[in-house]
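User: Teach me something about this protein's shape.
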Amino acid sequence: MNWIAIYTRARHECSVARQLQNMGYETYVPMRREVHQWSDRKRFVNVPLMPSYVFIRIPMNLYYKIYDAQGVVRVVMFNGRIAVIRENEIEMLREAGKCKEVILVSTREFEQGDEVEIVEGKFTGFRGKVFCVRNSNKVGLEIQELGYTVVVDRDDIRLVYRQEFSEV
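Assistant: First, the predicted structure itself:
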């Protein structure tokens, strides 16, 4: 069985996850705590780390059954195929949800398009593609399987592959 990502209606993550669990499937909704302030008080509130996403462990030949749950919009696809999420990526999301601060990753001299691996911090072992270099300390990485991005410190990643372009 593989983990796949489901895109849900806004604010339906927990409802969809509960329905799928009642059908007998293992689900995961990454959550984080944040402070919400009203005019008379402040409260800690659990909110999805990745809004509108639910992860489900399901046999690939039964993925269509997720549409039995109300609130499911679609299965997340990548290059025309169902995006399969690796177990270690789910574990990294679980760790990220436990973190109380903004998760940042960093690199040294990286360029847009470089494939990198995170070698320090909560996301150790994760690979991504550099999509922007924001300043001297931060690099934006694209998580292709999820269609999400994360900003990291330069010192925490190493170059895996750089595509060299030659002029013709």
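Now, about its shape. The domain at 105-161 is CATH 2.30.30.30 (SH3 type barrels.). The longest strand covers residues 2-8. If you'd like, I can walk through any region in more detail.
User: That's plenty for now, thanks!
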